[in-house]
From TrEMBL:
Belongs to the DapA family. Homotetramer; dimer of dimers. Its EC number is 4.3.3.7. It is found in: Cytoplasm. Pyruvate binds at T45, I203. The active site is at Y133, K161. Pfam families: DHDPS (PF00701). It catalyses: L-aspartate 4-semialdehyde + pyruvate = (2S,4S)-4-hydroxy-2,3,4,5-tetrahydrodipicolinate + H2O + H(+). Pathway: Amino-acid biosynthesis; L-lysine biosynthesis via DAP pathway; (S)-tetrahydrodipicolinate from L-aspartate: step 3/4. This is 4-hydroxy-tetrahydrodipicolinate synthase. SMART domains: DHDPS.
Amino acid sequence: MFKGSIVALITPMHENGDVDFVALQRLVDFHVDAGTHGIVSVGTTGESATLPVDEHIAVVKATVDYAAGRIPVLAGSGANSTAEAIELSQAMAPLGVDGFLSVVPYYNKPQQRGMIAHFEAVADSTDKPVLLYNVPGRTVADMLPETVIALSQHPKIVGIKEATGDLSRIGKIKAGVTDDFVLLSGDDETGCEFICQGGDGVISVTNNVAPALMAKMVNAALAGEHEVANQINAHLIPLHKTLFIEPNPVMPKYALYRMGLTESDFIRLPMVCAEPNNKKIIERVMLDMGLID
């Protein structure tokens, strides 16, 4: 269920900052039609840090309703407060989500023992499966492979989104976990190689903009057709790079706006919309890829 090409979905918004639920439904349909294998709703790309709890829950519920069982939905339930992560998990479990993606607590900089205690408490609070999310570039704290291995022994912790871009971690983690523990890349630039080296898929930002190509690349990599996968990925590399010239999700929000899938590229403070020059850069890449006219 949690394998393949999974989108870290943006949360579309109107110009006044309200969530655009019509555009959200359009995006869910866009991914189902494109062959995306799963959706992460209100993860960090979905601006979880700036959506209050009631709004966070409403967006996840709407995503599950729009998906209507056609595609698995993981709900972002991470927080830098363990109590808040538990509250979110318990509130969203009845909504029909297939599991949770829970990020390493940010700012607090917990010790490895603190991470173990945090994630065990979150997993104990729900009957849904939990995927860990390690992205030290945003959280500062880095969950080490040894910690992942320890947490994999919890019956509800079923996998990890590993977003360091360090491909050496695949072997280290695989050596200490069972075969059914899911290893997902969270780094688009190295995602193809991550799968070729034994990973199970990617939770992708690029997937917001080019879902059909991402699905095709991931399917080839999972099938062992590494040359085909690398050829497709070579076509995607300019997009992988350009989507991160400003902090995520600034650029994917603008790209989807230019594709006509959302009515605005509004993003909540403390982030602001993309610089004009950066908009021109991604437009050139999208033109070259045939994503816009």
